[in-house]
Design brief:
- There is one protein chain.
- By secondary structure, this protein is an alpha/beta fold.
- The protein has two domains: 132 residues, Rossmann fold; 186 residues, Hypothetical protein af1432 (Orthogonal Bundle).
- It is 58% helix and 7% strand.
- It is built from 15 helices and five strands.
- The relative contact order is 0.08.
- Bound molecules: fe (ii) ion (FE2).
Length: 359
């Protein structure tokens, strides 16, 4: 379909209006609208999308320069051609400053008029196309960025699912540890939210808690589930699991905090933990949180060798160990979170809901 090109001509001289209008219509398929003053011209511009405006500089009331200035405010993409008689240089300079597209000096030939208008229309079309292109490009970039973000989330979720499947398989072989990592993740996140941790810290806490016992993959199953008391050597072997986990996770984990949780979740605040005997501030805050959640779950889960603690008994035991096994600040937050709900009765949310902390 042929595009309609709209031209507005503004002149207080009816014969000039008629002359320009007739000339434009005769050689190009222009839709020409005529106005005898600036006010009328502005009302037309408000209602129509013109491809070019031709205006005399000398108009009654609002002159051509002010009209040009007002057109710029309404739609700066419309090229304006000013018709001059004996205009002063300063007037022309002002018109240039205001962004006039071209001047037609009286007397001008009809071919001069045609060429100037044709070029002005071409410029207008280029500006429109450029704007469309820029808008589309921005939308395209926005869409691609979102697709990339979603793909990354999916990739991360699939990676965590794979690791969790491995851990679940490991834990499922022992009735006493089944679901342990998921429960520890859930409790760690509840404590972390009570501490008002940032989204990125919660994300590290989540991943680290899921992975915290990954190193047990490297320990003999018979040793992990031995019903009898462990010898000193056997205990030392089991105590290697944070370091084995660190070795597994280091090449794939992007976040140092996740590695810290895996390697430090059995360290104790007073320095008597393992594998390195780290003390208070040398232990990562997130590892301290997972350490509390890990101990709580161990105490409240059925074990073959001792009685199961209630929520209240486990909370009391954690409070008793504040300042020795656990960081007192983290214990405070644990107790705050634990006072409102019994962690033992909590349903474990699906992994996808843990993923919300990546928002
Ligand atoms: Fe552990």
């Amino acid at each position: 379909m042929e595009q309609i090109i709209k031209i507005l001509v503004v002149d207080d001289d009816p014969s000039m209006l008629d002359l320009i209008g007739t000339a434009l219509k005769s050689r190009e398929k222009y839709d020409v609208i005529l106005a005898s003053d600036s006010e009328t011209a502005l009302s037309f511009i408000q209602e129509n999308d013109f491809d070019a405006v031709i205006s005399d500089i000398n108009l009654p009331g609002m002159d051509g320069l002010e009209l040009l200035s007002r057109i710029n405010i309404i739609n700066s993409k419309i090229p304006v051609i000013l018709i001059t008689g004996f205009a002063e240089v300063s007037t022309m300079q002002n018109a240039i400053k205001l962004g006039v597209y071209d001047f037609l000096r009286k007397p001008f030939s009809l071919s001069e008029l045609q060429i100037s208008v044709k070029q002005a229309v071409q410029k207008h079309h280029l500006l429109i196309q450029n704007e469309l292109y820029t808008n589309n490009l921005e939308k395209l970039l926005e869409q691609k960025a979102k697709e990339l973000y979603d793909a990354n989330i999916l990739l991360e979720l699939n990676f965590i699912r794979t690791v969790l499947a491995m851990i679940n398989a490991l834990e499922a072989s022992d009735i006493y540890t089944k679901g342990h990592s998921e429960r520890v993740t859930n409790i760690s996140l509840i404590i972390g939210q009570t501490m008002n941790l940032s989204t990125s810290e919660l994300k590290s806490l989540r991943n680290g808690a899921i992975f915290h016992d990954l190193g047990k993959i490297g320990i003999y199953q018979t040793l992990l589930h031995k019903p009898a008391a462990l010898s000193f050597e056997e205990l030392n072997l089991i105590r290697q699991h944070p370091l084995i986990g660190e070795k597994i996770i280091r090449p794939i984990a992007l976040d140092k905090e996740i590695i810290n949780i895996v390697s430090q979740h059995h360290e104790r605040y007073d320095g008597t933990g393992y594998p390195k005997g780290l003390k208070s501030h040398d232990i990562s805050l997130l590892a301290k949180v997972v350490s509390i959640a890990d101990s709580y779950d161990a105490m409240t889960s059925s074990r073959s060798y001792r009685d199961v603690f209630t929520h209240s008994q486990a909370s009391d035991e954690i409070q008793r160990c504040s300042g020795t096994q656990f960081d007192p600040v983290c214990v405070e937050y644990f107790l705050k979170a634990a006072s409102g709900q019994d962690f033992k009765t909590l349903e474990i949310p699906p992994l996808s809901s843990f993923m919300n902390v990546t928002l």
